[in-house]
Design goal:
This protein is mostly helical and 71 residues long. It is built from 1 helix and no strands. It is rod-shaped, with a radius of gyration of 30 Å.
Length: 71
């Protein structure tokens, strides 16, 4: 009976330890997902700004070409 009790206590301790590890992994996962979301948001913003700048550069280039052609 004592061996069964020891085995049971060991399994309970192992289970508790495993549950704590899972909780820690889930916490880290949520933290990483939050960071990834922020990076994705930043990337979308930068991409939109890049497209806007490229459009402005293209417009300016056309205007310069038009002015050059008028000369």
């Amino acid at each position: 009976r004592s061996e069964v009790e020891k085995a049971k206590k060991k399994l309970e301790a192992d289970l508790t330890n495993t549950q704590e590890q899972i909780d820690e992994i889930n916490r880290r996962k949520a933290e990483i997902e939050g960071r990834l979301s922020k990076v994705d948001e930043d990337l979308r913003g930068m991409s939109a700004r890049l497209e806007e700048e490229q459009g402005l550069a293209s417009k300016t280039s056309r205007q310069l070409k038009d002015q050059h052609d008028r000369m």
